Amino acid sequence: MDPQMMKMICLTPVVACILLVAADHICVADVDATSTTIVCTNFALPNGYPCKEYTVTTSDGYILTIQRIEHGRAGPQVGASRPPVILAAGVLQEAAQWLLNSPEQSLGYILPDAGFDVWFLNFRGTTDSSRHVSLSTEDKEFWDWSLDELASFDIPATLQLVYQTTGSQAYYIGHSQGTTVALAAFINTNVRQMVKAAVLLSPIVYLHHITSQVGLAFSYMYLDQVYLLSGASNFNISSGSLGSALLDQACVKVNCGDILNSFTGASSEFNSSRMGFYSKFMPQPTSANNIAHLAQLVRNDGLRKYDMGQVGNMNKYGQATSPEYNISSIPKEFPVLLALGGLDHLSDPVDVQNLIYDLRCSVKTIYNPHYGHADYILGINAWKEAYPQVINFLRSF
Ligand SMILES: *[C@@H]1O[C@H](CO)[C@@H](O)[C@H](O)[C@H]1NC(C)=O
Ligand SMILES: *[C@@H]1O[C@H](CO)[C@@H](O)[C@H](O)[C@H]1NC(C)=O
Ligand SMILES: *[C@@H]1O[C@H](CO)[C@@H](O)[C@H](O)[C@H]1NC(C)=O
After folding, report:
1. Where does the source fall among the domains of life (predicted)?
2. Which of 84, 218, 270, 368 has its CA 20 to 30 A from that of 391?
C-alpha cells in the first residue's frame, strides 16, 4: 500500500476505532440516521426508497457524505443477499446525477429494485462533501487536490466504509471522471481487492484524442493555467465568475451553442423538458487543480499524475515528468465492462482502443452508436439499451 494510503482512513463521527488490516488503520462510525442531503430528501425517500447517510473522513481530512439505498421499493427480499454497488459520479456532478429521471429510467433506482445495495459516493468539493476536519471551503488549501487525491483517498475511504459495513467486496460503477479515478485507484492491489468488478460508463482515462471542441479549445489555450494564475482555487462556472468568462473565451474560438452538448457531443437522448430540472443539481464545485489535471490529460499522452512543472515534479515525484499510472498493471482477471457512445466527444475511439489494449483484453463492452457522453446517465432509453447489460454483467461475478 502506498505511503499516503497508509495514513489513517477514518469514518466519522468517530465511535470506535479498530485496526482492520496490518497497515490500514480504520475508524468506524455509526450511521447518521438523519437524512438531510439531496439524494435522500429530494429523491430516494419521496420515491418510496429507504435512504441512509454515512460520513467517512479520508486520511487527508475530507469528510465525505455517502448515501445508501439498501433495497428497492418492494422492500428487502427475505433471505436474498444484496451485493453492494458503489456509484461514482463525474466531474461537476454529485450523486444526484444517478437519480435525475424517473425511478423506471434512473440507474440509481433500478439497481436497488434489481436487488443491489447501492452506495452513492460524493467526491470532495461537491455540496454534500464540502467539509474537512480543519479547513473550510473558504481556505485555499481546501481546494489543493486533483484526480490523484480522489483516486488515492476518496475511493479507498468509500470502499473501506462499504467493506466495513457490509463485510463484502463491492461492485463499482463510475461515470466519466468517476472512471478515471477508479482505474488510477485500482492499480493499488489493496484497493482493488475490495472491488468485485467495475463498470465504466463513458470512460475518460486517456483523453489525448478528444473531439470536444470546447474541451480542446480550453486545454490548448491553457485556460486552466490562466485560471490558476488568477489565484482562484475552486472552479466556479456560475455566470459572472471567472470560470464562466474563460469558457466564453473558449467559445470565441469554437461555436459552443448549447454548452452541455458542445462538451459532451450532441445527444438526442436527453429529455429536453427536464433540462431546467437537471441544472438545479449541476454544476457542482470542484478544484481548479482538478480541472487543470483534466486539461493536462488532453494535452499529454497517457494517464499521469498532476503535472507540477519540471521543478515541482522533481520536488514531488523525484523526476522531471509527472509519473504515469500503469493501467496495464491491473491484472487481466479483474472484470471490467466499458459502456461507450458513438457520439461521445470526450471518449475518442483511439483513446478507448488504447485503454482496452492496456487493460489487456479483460474488457467487455457495450456500444450505443447514438449515445453522447451523458447518455448512460441521463438518456431516456438507457433503462432498456444499457442497464440490463450492466446488471447481467454484475450478476455474472
Ligand atoms: C461562484 O461565482 C459566483 C459569481 O461570481 C459567486 O456568486 C459565487 O459565490 C461563487 N461560488 C463559489 C462556491 O465560490
Ligand atoms: C420527460 O420529462 C417530463 C417532465 O418531467 C415527463 O413528464 C416525461 O414523461 C419525460 N419523458 C420521457 C420520454 O421520459
Ligand atoms: C506496467 O505493468 C506491466 C504489467 O505488470 C509491466 O509489464 C510493464 O513493464 C509496466 N510498465 C511500466 C512502464 O512500468
Report:
1. Eukaryota
2. 270
Task: List domains and CATH numbers for the chain.
Answer: 3-208+327-395 (3.40.50.1820)
Helix, strand or coil, per DSSP, at residue 67: strand
Residue 326, ligand 3, Cβ within 6 A:
yes
> Cell 457542482, residue?
284
Contact predicate 382/105, CB 8 Å: yes
Annotated catalytic residue 373 = yes
What single string gives the DSSP state of each residue in 232-250?
A: --EE--STTSHHHHHHHHH
Tens of pLDDT, residues 277-310: 877 787 788 888 988 898 898 888 889 999 999 9
362 lines ligand 3 (CB under 6 A): no
Long-range Cβ contact pairs of 250-253 (< 8 A, separation 24 or more): 250/214, 250/217, 250/218, 250/221, 250/223, 251/214, 251/217, 253/217, 253/221
Location of C-alpha cell 488515492: 152
Give yes or no: 344 in active site. Answer: yes
Q: Which of 115, 124, 120, 65 is nearest to 96 (CA)?
A: 120
* Residue whose CB lies within 8 A of the most ligand 3 atoms, among 183, 303, 304, 329, for a mutation test: 329
Of 383, 396, 339, give the one whose Cα is nearest residue 111: 383
267 is catalytic: no
Q: Which atom of ligand 1 is nearest to the CA of 137?
A: 13
For 34-84, how does the pLDDT look when each residue is reduced to its tens digit (9 = 90+)? 556 889 999 999 999 999 999 999 999 999 999 999 999 999 988 889 999
Q: Are 47 and 109 in contact (CB under 8 A)?
A: yes
Is the beta carbon of 381 within 6 A of some atom in ligand 2? no
